[in-house]
Amino acid sequence: MADDPQSRFEIVAREDFSDATYLLEVRHPLMARAARPGQFVIVMSHEHGERIPLTIADYDREEGTITLVIQAVGKSTREMQQTCTVGTHLYGMVGPMGMPSPLGKAKKVLCVGGGLGVAPIYPQMKGFKEAGAYVIAVIGFRTKSLVFWQEKFEACCDELILCTDDGSAGVEGRVTTGMELAIAKHPDIDECVAIGPPIMMKGAAEVTRPHGIKTMVSLNPVMIDGTGMCGGCRVKVGDTVKFACVDGPDFDGHKVDFDDLMARLGRFSSQEKAAMKRWSDECRMAKPVSPAGGKE
Ligand SMILES: Cc1cc2nc3c(=O)[nH]c(=O)nc-3n(C[C@H](O)[C@H](O)[C@H](O)COP(=O)(O)OP(=O)(O)OC[C@H]3O[C@@H](n4cnc5c(N)ncnc54)[C@H](O)[C@@H]3O)c2cc1C
Ligand code: FES
Asked: Does residue 83 form part of some domain?
């Protein structure tokens, strides 16, 4: 089966946005055909690799590719940053997983992406646009050098507000500042989608709450099997407990218990640090020794 294109996960393009953020385009025609906005895949980069969930940031049905945008934060994502080059293959990729985003019938939509959340908000924005909505996008980064996909957003949405924390590009401030500007100009926004770090999504939900704007967020709890069996990804939404991998990952931002989500995300930090240290030590050991006796 090794030569069957449906069973291989060839990396056909790669782009590095910064020291930590990189894009991979993976060829898999069936997955590209099936993907819907809001869905994700679970990837193993090699036989002994960890299974990591990644949002489908874009898909091209004609080319048969899906796009992943990844931030190197720990052992697996750093390892992929080193090894996933054009022409190599992922060992495994399962998906598309999760419920597609409920794009609804909104007429005017605010799409908000913070940092890496800019990538997963893109397919949702495209989906709303294709459904005929007027789309205002707010994207936020720490600083100008981290900005990516500005042109891609400009080409797709009706209005774009770029924010940077330090004011080096666009409006100075966080995405919540951009959201307030958008809501002041468009009091008739009927839906908002916000994706980014939990603290950002919590802030975004608080901006829209007093205006009564329906707000969906995409949650990123620790996932293991991705099938609703292990319970690892449970999140509290209103009075109910949901499994983000099968019930989500999109939920009503006004009902999500973000404090519980953030506490759960930090539960394995000592194991994650240990895995990172083990891997860094192995990388150092594997480096060839120079003739002078030092490491190259
Ligand atoms: C539905 C979903 C979509 C995601 N989409 C993206 C994406 O498009 N791009 C991206 O860069 N990241 C995405 N993530 C987060 C990504 O899965 C983690 O950054 C990655 O698993 C970290 O692995 P690591 O070994 O590099 O880091 P580690 O050091 O193991 O972990 C760093 C942090 O990542 C989180 N994390 C660790 N393991 C998991 C796991 N199995 N599942 C979820 N979170 C974990 C924890 O908060 C942890 O503190 C998504 C997560 C979910 C649940
Ligand atoms: S990842 Fe196991 S139940 Fe969702």
From this structure: yes
CA dist 35 and 129 (Å) reads: 17
Q: Is the CB of 249 under 6 A from ligand 1?
A: yes
* Ligand 1 contacts CB of residue 190 (under 6 A): no
Q: Is residue 204 part of a domain?
A: yes
Distance 245 CA to ligand 1 centre (A): 13
pLDDT at 287: 59
Ligand 2 atom 2 nearest Cα: 230
The one-letter code for the residue type at 21 is: T
CB under 6 Å to ligand 2: residues? 223-226, 228-233, 243, 245
What does the pLDDT look like over 66-82, one tens digit per residue? 999 999 988 899 999 99
Whether residue 78 is found in the same domain as residue 124: no
Tally the domains of the chain: 2
pLDDT at 285 (0 to 100)? 64
Same domain for 115 and 72? no
- Mutation pick for ligand 1 pocket among 36, 40, 73 (CB with most ligand atoms within 8 Å): 73
Q: What is the pLDDT of residues 206-216, one digit of tens each?
A: 999 999 999 99
At 20-63, the pLDDT tens digits run 999 999 999 999 999 999 999 999 999 888 899 999 999 999 99
The CA-CA-CA angle for residues 175, 178, 183, to 5°, reads: 125
Any long-range contacts for 229-237 (C-beta under 8 Å, 24+ apart)?
Answer: 235/260, 235/261, 236/260, 236/261
What is the C-alpha to C-alpha distance for residues 37 and 149, in angstroms, rounded to an integer? Answer: 17
- Has residue 287 been placed in a domain? no
| pLDDT, tens only, 209-253 | 999 999 999 999 999 889 999 999 999 999 999 999 999 999 999
Contact between 2 and 8 (Cβ < 8 Å): yes
Look at the pTM and tell me if it is higher than 0.90: no
Does the beta carbon of 225 sit less than 6 angstroms from any atom of ligand 1? no
Ligand 1 center–CA 175 separation, angstroms: 22
Q: Same domain for 11 and 93?
A: yes
Which residue puts its alpha carbon closest to atom 10 of ligand 1?
A: 70
